[in-house]
Amino acid sequence: MCALRLFQVVRFMSAFANEAAYDLWAESYPPLPHNPLMRAEQEAVLAMCPDVAGRRVLDLACGSGRYGLLLQQRGAALVVGSDLSAGMLTRAPLAHRVRADMLNLPFAAASFDVIVSGLAVGHAPSLDAWMAEAARVLAPGGQLVYSDFHPAAARAGMTRSFTDAAGQRHELLHALHDPDAHLAAAWRAGLVLEASREVCVGRELCEPFTGSEAFYARWNGLAVVLAMRLVKP
Fold first, then answer.
1. Dihedral sign computed on CA atoms, order 30, 196, 192, 156
2. With respect to CATH, is domain 3-231 assigned 3.40.50.2300?
3. Four-residue CA torsion sign, 46, 51, 54, 59
4. Can you tell me the distance from the alpha carbon of 7 to that of 42, in angstroms, rounded to the nearest whole number?
5. Structural contact between residues 119 and 197, judged by C-beta atoms closer than 8 angstroms
């Protein structure tokens, strides 16, 4: 794997354009972490996940359903995968799949005990709206565990992108949300921080790949993923 393929990958300028991009990407997007960054991100998220046995779980912006599948295997009583991309949903190996905008979920209040969302919140135009909607469908005592691409990585020049089957490179629109902005949005939504982690190059992200020596020398110590666990009192 080329080092730049971890992050770099024609620019989409709206949420709907991102949806079209993910529909294109779905053809080659497996329900598992398929590069070193995703594997490091998943390890951080799962380390913060609560026990889901017997609980109702939402895989929010599930993509191909990698988290939903893992939480299903961990004994969740119900796992629902929700995503705006119809293409991605067809790839998700989940019994319950709902096509929906993550800012306008078609679920009653307090429908889930745990919400997990991987690398999706940066696609939300409003962090406050995203956090409020997650809090609405979360039951009291429930937990929201999610990850986001770290703004430090974007400011350093890394981008979210992929190459489609025709060899066309697509860069996805991604908002920058600083850690303090996450905390402020959580507070306004009535959620409380329980834990947070950063995935940094050369520390959590240290898996070798083609070109990794130069990559790690250039970006050593840079935070590339932020992961958080919030609780609804």
1. negative
2. no
3. negative
4. 16
5. no
DSSP string, 144-166: EEEEEE-HHHHHTT---EEE-TT
Predicted local distance difference test score (pLDDT) of residue 213: 95
What are the start-end ranges of the H helices in 58-100? Answer: 66-73, 86-91
pTM value is 0.85
Report the C-alpha gap between 3 and 231 in whole angstroms: 36
Q: Over the stretch 5-52, which tens digit does the pLDDT of each residue have?
A: 333 322 233 344 555 655 555 465 666 677 898 899 999 999 999 999
Q: Please state, in angstroms and rounded to a whole number, the distance separating the CA atoms of residues 3 and 78.
A: 38
Amino acid at 114: V
Q: What percent of the chain has pLDDT over 90?
A: 67
Bridge partners, residue 129, by sequence: none
Neighbours of 68 (CB within 10 A): 28
d(CA 207, CA 66): 20
φ and ψ at 204, to 5 degrees?
-75, -35
Q: Residue 9 corresponds to which tokens in the numbers above?
A: 């990958």
- The number of angstroms, rounded, from the C-alpha of 50 to the middle of its chain's C-alpha atoms is 17
Taking the CA atoms of residue 135, residue 46, residue 40 and residue 160 in that order, the dihedral angle to the nearest 10 degrees is: -30
pLDDT tens digits, 69-123: 999 999 999 999 999 888 778 888 899 999 999 999 999 999 999 999 999 998 8
H or E stretch at 183: helix 179-188
Are 197 and 48 in contact, with CB atoms under 8 Å apart? yes
Domain positions in the chain are 3-231
Per-residue pLDDT band at 172 (split at 50, 70, 90): low
